[in-house]
User: Fold these one by one.
Assistant:
Number 1:
Amino acid sequence: MIQLNSICKSFEGRTVLDDIDFSFDDGKTNLIIGQSGSGKTVLMKCIVGLLTPENGEVLYDGRDLIHMGKKEKQALRREMGMIFQSAALFDSLSVLENVMFPLDMFSTDTYRDRVKRARFCLDRVNLIDAQDKYPGEISGGMQKRVAIARAIALQPKYLFCDEPNSGLDPKTSLVIDDLIHGITVEYNMTTIINTHDMNSVMGIGDSILFIYQGRKEWEGTKDDVFNATNERLNNFIFASDLLRKVKQEENKAK
Ligand SMILES: Nc1ncnc2c1ncn2[C@@H]1O[C@H](COP(=O)(O)OP(=O)(O)OP(=O)(O)O)[C@@H](O)[C@H]1O
């Protein structure tokens, strides 16, 4: 579990995050949603330690990220897996070598065991047949799956995904969402996803934090979204005509 207590962050006197409290649970896909510029990326950066909040606590299963020493921070980093907006693969390395990269960097296992682990992760994302290909030879969706395999290679306790569906078509996005949700439940990870994607909200929103102008405006689950009365949330979620119509139909059916 990752717990945020009263997180505040400002840049040059301008408040960007204001007193955010939230708990991200294990075994759930926790989504951070909000309009462009609302503070999602800054919050994610505060959570992973790339930015330091002026105030507040980020607790990783009770361990205080902001006040921990360098060694403890390094150890914690090894428990984190990250999936970036672009898949961020190394073009000159094969798919297998990409997945092996964090293992080569941090694992003390033998080469044989590292290869075994990398192949296991590739198999989990259904890409074992592509292990010898290079990133330039596979589709964007496949690249994201390689990035997922790489992110779970070191068996992280915490998984961070920044806009994992950006640049993907809706069908491929569903595959990626299902995969992230599946591994989250399977490995009981604390997964945090920054997203704009309403399909993700409705599909894998086990827990949703909606940020509006740097403040926590609403929290709930995908099942709560349809009945939420928060106007700012509704304006954000039902900005698309299609979703607004679905909500109207649901209300009529009640
Ligand atoms: N290093 C920085 N220095 C100054 N201002 C910053 C910095 N980083 C972010 N901001 C500001 O903080 C606010 C929140 O930005 P943030 O990137 O977190 O938004 P976001 O919700 O992730 O948006 P998007 O969905 O477009 O990625 C913005 O007004 C942005 O200009």
Note: The longest strand covers residues 14-24.
Number 2:
Amino acid sequence: MALYVENATKKFGDFTAVDDISLKVERGQMHGFLGANGAGKTTTFRMILGLLEPTHGMVSWNGKPITYGTSPEIGYLPEERGLYPKMKVEDQLIYLAQLRRMPRQEAKREVANWLGRFEVPHYASKKVEELSKGNQQKIQLIASLLHRPSLLILDEPFSGLDPVNVEMLKSAILDFQKEGATIVFSSHRMDHVEELCDDISILDKGKMILSGSIREVKRSFGKQNVRVKTDGDLSALAEVAGVEKYKKTHDGALFQIMDEATAQTILVESMKRGPLRHFAIEEPTLEEIFIARVGKAYA
Ligand SMILES: Nc1ncnc2c1ncn2[C@@H]1O[C@H](COP(=O)(O)OP(=O)(O)OP(=O)(O)O)[C@@H](O)[C@H]1O
């Protein structure tokens, strides 16, 4: 019981947008799908959803290709707005749930629950175009999961949301996973991915360059960070052997190092330059790994 993408390639004319990628997402997992702009994430999602035919390869969900018949099992939050601007929120959500075979009365009840949970019950009778971008995103998420799909594909679910709303949507997505859903989502916010996902994969110019659990990905990066908080000037420590990168921070410095012996040197040398308020060896962040692997063009 899993989502399988097997050697999927998508060409548009001579241009290869997705190049022979394979991916397995086990049932109940949350998978982060990462890549710079134009890497091929949305194209892959469209192939998973059956909206685009792969040029080569195949996609299956629970051993079957995804077709019109399996679509009620799937929920999709597209990157671009996919709602009817002139239709009222409640009418639209009920309509979309009915298309996925949810009975009308149940859909109506669920819409009320979700609008309540997202603190927008008063939007039920407003037209979508009257809502702010962030509130439209809440409605879009409700539209994707209202019919209780077992596979949920979310393309940039947190874009345009303020931090309070990000937390609200994150907790809804996590609850949905706890109920057993398999979730794949793309995001440019590595901190969100780190917080929510079990496994990740990174696409670069259509190719899969990294895939695995976040723990494995971090371990295989082979570098760690040392964070020091002090008023002392640590800039000379940038030259210590084993220091890959040095960055001054507002309260001290951050070093990227290759091995723990270097951390000991940094500790000793930092203490010579003033009292320390904090010293810690930290694992690399996903953002650092992404930038190292995909390139500095990404911001
Ligand atoms: N219908 C199409 N015809 C031609 N080229 C396309 C088409 N759809 C996508 N592409 C190209 O395929 C590449 C991958 O696009 P895609 O939208 O999948 O990237 P993405 O990773 O989702 O990017 P972003 O993070 O910016 O949303 C891009 O170079 C894009 O211009």
Note: The longest strand covers residues 15-26.
